[in-house]
Amino acid sequence: MHNRLGNHLLNRRNLLALGGLTGAAALLPPGRDGRHGPRPRRLAHVPAFSVEMPLPPVARPVQVRPDADVYQVRIKPARVEIVPGLLTPVLSFGGGFVGPTFQVRTGRRVIVKYHNDLDRAANVHLHGGHVPSVSDGHPMDVIDPGRFRVYDYPNTQQGTTLWYHDHSHHTEARNVYAGLHGFYVIEDPAEAKYGLPRGRYDVPIMIRDALIGQDGELIYDVPDTRTTLLANGRPQPYFRVAARKYRFRLLNGTTHRLFRLRLEGDLPLIQIGSDGGLLPAPQRMRELLISSGERADVVVDFSRFKPGDQVMMHDTSGTVLRFDVVRRARDHSRVPDVLRPLPDLPEATVTRDVVFNLDLTTPKWRYLMNEQEFDPARVDFQVRRGATEIWRIHNADVERGGINHTFHLHLEQFRVLDRDGEPPWPTDLGRKDTIYVPPGASARIKVRFTEHLGRYVYHCHFLDHSSLGMMAQLQIVP
Ligand SMILES: [Cu+2]
């Protein structure tokens, strides 16, 4: 009896964890803005620093054509080891908890055929990608179970760290939480001259959180409960480094969290790039604020350390990972004082307002942008191709201690002009596609819509919010 009940709960948890429909509605409202607190449950014991941080596998093309590299990836359920000794059912791109890393080049077209082997719809959004509408992974363009879809990426943008993740409407938060995420790194021949760390010293690190039950199951609950920090899919791992400079491509792969990252002893995080590529100049940071979906390209110099030394990377909520210095190494890499200049944008001809707001007055809270829930049949902003626009992003949620939001625009990288009339934050510099907007605050961004036409979305990148409606649609017209 007791066991059967236990099994029942376990099965139900697995269903929830993997996005089944049973009871899902009850678990949806996220975070401190939600109606449910954490429920009592048995959690896995997660030891710190007991596993090495893995590198996601690198995707290999199945065909190299004169005009494009062709890849195939299966979206499928998998069982992976996250906590040592436990197998966790996840949703995966290609079988791993962090999908294969695409390493592509500026100017080289890539075609990816994704087969959906799941029992539910999914899709693939290339976050930060400058891609035609049909390949963007619009929330309504889903791949039904048993079907496939071909995504065509021109890779005309400059080198940068993108990522790809599920964006199927209403299910994106739980699908990404369950593992539908991976890196897409655009390498740019124009970057070679800077002499930055490269090859094995250029390392992507996806940082995210999780709540893991005693049998290894990923539990999808309110974000505040996700207390286990993962780096490339393993809890608080160690990573062996040489005493030299590294380039770390940091991604906040959570669906709903801010990280404030710091290295032990205030070792600087030298930020060289953000969402859309290299910065005009490196920024030495003691603390790096990075919200869901954002990337920060940083150089860390371990040359002052000797073998045997350890350097922790902390978030305010706990330790993320530990760098173990294991050897000395020659280092010919450098961080030049001047990196990639940002071209001027034309004068803006259109100004728009985007307001995040939760309606707490209805029994079922409503997650709104400009007072409306997402409706795929509605175009919220019609944009002229070629136009340069200023968008004022405002977070109106100041009640109940305030609710955080993040803003993500598909298709184009933007610049942050100012925040409440003050200069942008250090982490706003460069080309951005995602920014954190605190309660009551505003940010002005400037963006130019270049060659592509069609439907795209912009939304809160706390996917627990966007999946409930905090998303809107733009259409670019000739
Ligand atoms: Cu939000």
Oligomer: single chain
Q: Hey, roughly how much beta strand do the residues contain?
A: 35-45%
Distance between the termini: 66 Å
| Whole-number mean pLDDT | 92
Under the CATH scheme, the architecture of the domain at 350-477 is: Sandwich
CATH fold annotation of the domain at 350-477: Immunoglobulin-like
Which CATH class of the domain at 350-477? Mainly Beta
Radius of gyration: 21 Å
Unreliable sequence segments: 1-35
Q: CATH H-level name of the domain at 350-477... which superfamily? A: Cupredoxins -  blue copper proteins
Largest sheet: 7 strands, mixed
Fold topology:
Elements: H1 2-17, H2 24-27, E1 63-64, E2 68-81, E3 87-93, E4 102-105, E5 109-116, E6 125-127, E7 148-153, E8 160-165, H3 172-177, E9 181-187, E10 202-210, E11 228-231, E12 234-235, E13 238-243, E14 245-252, E15 258-263, E16 269-274, E17 277-285, E18 288-291, E19 295-301, E20 310-315, E21 318-328, E22 350-359, E23 366-369, E24 381-384, E25 388-395, E26 405-409, E27 414-419, E28 434-437, E29 442-448, E30 454-460, H4 463-466, E31 471-477
Parallel strand pairs: 2-5, 4-9, 10-14, 13-21, 22-25, 24-31
Antiparallel strand pairs: 1-2, 2-3, 5-7, 6-8, 8-9, 10-11, 11-12, 14-19, 15-18, 15-20, 16-17, 16-19, 20-21, 22-23, 25-29, 26-28, 26-30, 27-29, 30-31
Bound molecules: copper (II) ion (CU).
